[in-house]
Amino acid sequence: MPTRASARALASMARVVGVRPAQLARAGRQDAARVLDEALRREERAIQQPAATGIRVIDEAATSEKVAPFAWQVESEVARAEARYGPEPTGEQIFGLGHEANAWNSPSFDREMKVRLIATFRLFAYQNRGGRAGVNTGLILAAPAPAAFP
User: Fold this and answer.
1) Is 27 a member of any domain?
2) What CA–CA distances, in Å, run from 31 to 5, 7, 27, 36, 113?
3) d(CA 39, CA 129)
4) 89 found inside a domain
5) For residue 89, is pLDDT > 90?
6) Over the stretch 42-57, which tens digit does the pLDDT of each residue have?
7) Dist. CA 16–CA 86, nearest whole Å
8) Domain count, the chain
9) pTM of the predicted structure, to 2 decimals
10) What digits encode the pLDDT tens for the residues 101-121?
């Protein structure tokens, strides 16, 4: 089943990986572009007046460091799909169905941006799981079968 991130969630993920509002708009997500644009404006105001706003600015270096293991994982999956299907495998061939396949199939992003975006999806899912498996992030995660269902 195809999934679609909310404007707020997509704007948050786009901010972390450096996607600009215009890129989201070109990709057909004007709603997320507006949310991201407003967030960037608030961030700029926070930088100018940090004590007055209380808005925390994201440390991009720390975020990149956290995304790196997930990016390596995505690159490994892409390499396996390339070995199996040849150059430029589809998102479905790499990831199956879902938001990762949709992100990979987007013509609006280059390969590096796609890897960073999917790695960020995974980082957010990992952080939001809070050590628990299952669905609670807004991103669809496969929950393990309960013990009663072999």
Assistant:
1) yes
2) 11, 6, 11, 9, 20
3) 24
4) yes
5) yes
6) 777 655 554 544 444 4
7) 31
8) 1
9) 0.48
10) 998 998 888 888 889 889 888
